[in-house]
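Sequence and structure are kept together here, with a separate record for every protein. An example record follows, reproduced without changes.
>
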Amino acid sequence: MYNRILSMLIALITCQVLFAQHKELAGFSKGFTPNEVGKRLAYHFVDNKHEFYDRYIHYAEVCTWNGALDYAVRAKDNKLIKLLVDKFEPLFSYEKELLPPMNHVDYNMFGSLAFKLYEITKDERYKKIGLAYADSQWELPQNAKRIEKSWADKGFSWQTRLWIDDMYMITVVQGEAYKVTGDRKYIDRAAKEMVLYLDELQRGNGLFYHAPDVPYYWGRGDGWMAVGMPNLLRMLPTDHKDRPRIMEGYLKMMQSLKQYQRPNGMWNQLIDESDFWVETSGSAMFTYGFIIGVQEGWLKASEYAPAAKKAWLAMIRYIDSRNNVTEVCIGTGKKNDKQHYHDRPRNAGDFHGQAPYLWCSAALLEE
């Protein structure tokens, strides 16, 4: 009886603490509430045409679609949910050729969208598509290159390439597969990959190189880690062997990001370069990392909630009258050249920016 009462008290205290932490991330004025912002961007996405990577659905569109779905579910907007589901339906038939091939991290992450739609609709067609994308990341093709075989022999995905982008691209589809199936192999795959990338790319200051041979802290590149780690930590069983290592990497990164946050609340295109321009997609991803950490109790609310709110308020000012996020760095491959990152063009409405804004909107609506 005593142990039962003690457990109940601990649970009650935990709920009170989490409620207080969520309250720290509320109280936004009109025009800045997550519901308003999410609605603007999600309905704008519905009206957009597909964006292509070669001739296939672009991964940035998938990220935005995922964000719009998360927002719609949290906002309990059934009309929006239906519109987002209907947007996918042609991909089962006359738009089927737009489905990405299963031969690259950027393509395979499409499976995450199918899994999210399955969770909402329970339509087995989505689950079948999602599993094909998730499983093919670990199924070595016959024409695999030597380096791809090497990664597979070590138990990693043959699509491993040690670009920081991968720690959203790989972990999102494997994590969603775990949520849908309950099969531990999927979460084990995601965690194993994450530890590899932490060991190879995270530097002493908590930030990440774009790749081992590119020693620059590119905003959106680091953003993929800032989103991938907390999302994975939320799914990892508490007793998972890799959880402490991933939590260590996450906390180290968040501490560093807090130090590099600009006075205006944002972060720069190269995080540690004060004379570089403010970039919105990376800033939104870092804000998301703060939000989740505060909500889960991993980050001290008194320190990180004000930083998250400051960033959120700054972010919204970069949305134009057409509901396009501005100052978004276009898709950027790795290059060992500082000027390369400085000179990247900036787009308004680029899905790379629309997506993390929606992720933040959905996260701030969590109860």
In short: The longest helix spans residues 2-23. The mean pLDDT is 94.
